[in-house]
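protien #1 (seq + structre)
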Amino acid sequence: MSNALILLVEDNEDDVFLMKRAMKKAGLDFPLRVAANGQEALDYLSFNGPFADAKNPPPSLVFLDLKLPYVHGFEVLRWIRENLPELPVVMLTSSNEERDRHLAAELGAVAYLVKPPVAETLAETMRFLKAPERKN
């Protein structure tokens, strides 16, 4: 699955750094794109705004924070389920609240991880990677 791309939706630079480090430690050598807020994630996924040229490859997996500027993580997840139902989404958040876990599962998240990410846990979530569709 060498063409797999991961979209990390995360507004905290320290958490982006920790994710990159955990991926490297887990031996996950996938391209990683970062959306710094919920609106940027929606623009990326729908080819709007700065991503309107459609040159950005669609992700094979999304790691999604909950508490994001502009558009909350649950709203991003709802949009993904309505528009890209096959795209696996892993919640990656500091919230250990049972109600957040429940709502994430209800909205179709394939996993719920509490920050900081651990290499072994990230390696396990890679089973959710989908092969990107090829354009003919």
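ok now protien #2
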Amino acid sequence: PARAPGAYVVLVDWLPALYLERGGRSLSRLAKQGEQVDGVKRDVADDQSPIGLALAALADAGRRGWLGKLAIERVDGKPVLGSQLEGALLQLGFSAGPRRLTLRAGS
């Protein structure tokens, strides 16, 4: 991840979990699948996993308008549609579009 104005790192238990590139189009997982939270190993799809918690925080920040419009097109360099995170993002209020998942402030 590049340290750039407008890029964000989401921390879980003070450890980096997600990196959102400037512009909100690309998301990278920094926490590994199956990492532990509070001593319990969690799967990436679990909403209590580091990634699940980080996605919830990211969606909350997006809904509050802190990040502007999020239009995620890529996760870990691959298309978001069909990715492991697509279902979790849709459950958090993102809307599916032609090549992206979008979350607008206030939604």
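The chain has a mean pLDDT of 85.
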